[in-house]
Structure formats: C-alpha cells, structure tokens
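Entry for the shared binder. Reason: the reviewer on the internal report wants the predicted structure included alongside the sequence.
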Amino acid sequence: MRAAVATFLALGCGWAAAILVPLYEFLAEEGQRGSRYLPIAYGLAWTGIAAAGVAAAVLVASKLRTRSAIGWTPLVAVPLIIESWLLGCLVALVLGSF
C-alpha cells in the first residue's frame, strides 16, 4: 500500500511540474534575445522530469530484484523533479535576462 501511495505522489508531482514548465515563458522578456534560451530551459526541465522517473523505476526494480520491500522508494523522484523544474526556471530567468 505504501508503494502505491508513494507512486501516486511521485506521479502527481511530476504531472504538476510538467504543467508548470510553460510558465518559463513569463520569465523571459519577449521581443528580446532572452526568449531564444527558452528551449534550453525546457529541455533541462523535461529531461530532469523524465530522468527522475527513470531513477525511481530503476530503484524500484532493484528492490524487486533483491526481494526487498519497496515502501516509500518511489518518493525519491519527488526532490529530483522539483530540482529539475527549479533548474529550468533558473536557466530561463538568468539567460532570459540577457
């Protein structure tokens, strides 16, 4: 039951981050060169969200392979998702200001 709840929470966090990625457009000033860096910010965020899911799946698979309890293992994806979204936001903010 814990694994199901943890998976649901991790998927919910990933979904929320994916919905918030288009907000990067508000950070880059339109009409200036800063908007050309948005694909970099998008790429970092999407790659980080996907990599967090893969990392959680690999950890769950290793727990299954060793016949250990999965427990809250899928929650390892949540901080990775948040960090990747923040990294993309930072890139959009800093590079978008040039």
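Summary line for the report: DSSP finds three helices and no strands in the chain.
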